[in-house]
Amino acid sequence: MSTAVPHRFAIGIESADIDFMGHVNNASYLKWVQAAVLDHWRALAPAEIAARHLWVALKHEITYRKPAFLEDDVIATVLLEKVHGARAFYDTVIRRGEEVLAEVKSSWCCLDASTMRPARLAQDVIEHFFPRPDPHTGS
User: Fold this and answer.
1) How many domains in the chain?
2) Do residues 94 and 72 make contact, with C-beta atoms less than 8 angstroms apart?
3) Strand locations in the chain, DSSP E?
């Protein structure tokens, strides 16, 4: 399998994200990671497949590096590490410019939208997230 392509997601910091210490509350990072991962899914999955599947978070492990503030321009870069059965494993890095604000490892479960039961993704769907290099150009 090829390497996943990073997905960039712009984060809008709102006044509700700011805590009593004047920086972004830690809980907001979870909201951002969820939005970024779901945006990644919608951007790369075929529309008919995206409509038939839902994602629920199973686990988040967050390492906070630096605080974020209301006026910051923040980007989350999502990288799908692997898909195993109905589970997907992601790395998300949240940055302000070149500064890493937080690093998040998360696992997600794919659900069939009609039955709400775990659903494995077909290999041809997974391949949308791990593009193969062009043999003619090597990229």
Assistant:
1) 1
2) no
3) 7-11, 53-64, 74-84, 87-96, 99-112
Percentage helix, strand, coil, to 5, in the chain? 25, 40, 35
pLDDT in tens, 13-53: 999 999 999 999 999 999 999 999 999 999 998 899 999 99
CA 97 – CA 16 distance, rounded (Å)? 22
User: Can you give the CATH number for the domain in which 100 is found?
Assistant: 3.10.129.10
| 112, 135 Cβ separation under 8 angstroms | no
pLDDT per position as a tens digit, 48-81: 999 999 999 999 999 999 999 999 999 999 999 9
Residue type present at position 98 = E
- Is the model's pTM score more than 0.90? no
Instruction: Show the domain range for 116.
Output: 7-126
In a domain, 71, yes or no: yes
